[in-house]
């Protein structure tokens, strides 16, 4: 996938700096749709960027061996395609789960985040592409963003 490829390369650089494992599992039957979705890169990069950050800072919070891992999976669901971005990072506390898509909501230290990433992503996925964007998370354990996009 072109959009995914781009997003993937953007995190490859980070990978080198903190030993991140990136797992990908792309459904080959959706390759031909890539062109239409090439402008999704920005949306995906924002999510992947957050995922990298969350698994990265977890590394500093725990003493046991920990391997920060981000997995990207695509699936052809017939009339829609599904993209899942999973990380084994810090998770999102219940109180924040409703707020993460709001512009300027951030928990990052000043200077490290504008809080615009997910609101832009939401605009692109839901506003522009009539898709769906959901989050599943368990604080302390994982976060998974699930994007579904209509094929037409
Ligand atoms: N994968 C994740 N794991 C844990 N928390 C997350 C994750 N993704 C988003 N969040 C939470 O949602 C908040 C908002 O995310 P968003 O991408 O909109 O802004 P940001 O990352 O803080 O800043 P920016 O994207 O502008 O650099 C984050 O500050 C963080 O608290
Ligand atoms: Mg962000």
Account of the protein in words:
This protein has 152 residues and is α+β, with helices and mostly antiparallel strands. The chain has a single domain (2-150), classed as Histidine kinase-like ATPase, C-terminal domain (Heat Shock Protein 90), CATH 3.30.565.10. It contains four helices and five strands; from the N terminus they run H-E-H-E-E-H-H-E-E. The protein has helices spanning 2-18, 41-61, 94-97, 117-128; strands at 21-25, 69-76, 80-87, 132-138, 142-150. A five-stranded mixed sheet has the order 1-2-3-5-4. A hairpin with a 3-residue loop joins strand 2 (69-76) and strand 3 (80-87). The mean pLDDT is 85. Magnesium ion is lined by residues 46, 49-50, 113, 117.
**Shape by Cα distribution:** globular
Q: What fold name stands as the CATH topology?
A: Heat Shock Protein 90
Mean of residue pLDDT?
85
| Distinct ligand kinds | adenosine-5'-triphosphate, magnesium ion
Flag low-confidence runs. none
Structural class: alpha+beta
The portion of residues assigned to helices is: 25-40%
Helix and strand sequence: HEHEEHHEE
Largest sheet: 5 strands, mixed
CATH-defined architecture: 2-Layer Sandwich
**Approximately how much beta-strand content do the residues carry?**
15-25%
């Amino acid at each position: 996938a072109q959009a995914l490829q781009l997003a993937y390369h953007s995190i490859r650089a980070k990978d080198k700096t903190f030993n991140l494992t990136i797992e990908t599992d792309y459904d080959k039957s959706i390759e031909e749709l890539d062109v239409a979705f090439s402008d999704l890169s920005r949306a995906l990069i924002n999510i992947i960027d957050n995922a990298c950050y969350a698994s990265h800072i977890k590394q500093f919070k725990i003493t046991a061996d920990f391997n920060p891992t981000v997995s990207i999976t695509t699936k052809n669901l017939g009339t829609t395609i599904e993209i899942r971005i999973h990380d084994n990072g810090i998770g999102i506390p219940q109180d924040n789960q409703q707020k993460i898509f709001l512009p300027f909501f951030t928990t990052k230290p000043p200077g490290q985040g504008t809080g615009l990433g997910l609101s832009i992503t939401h605009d692109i996925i839901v506003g522009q592409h009539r898709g769906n964007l959901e989050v599943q998370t368990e604080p302390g354990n994982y976060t998974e963003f699930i994007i579904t996009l209509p094929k037409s």
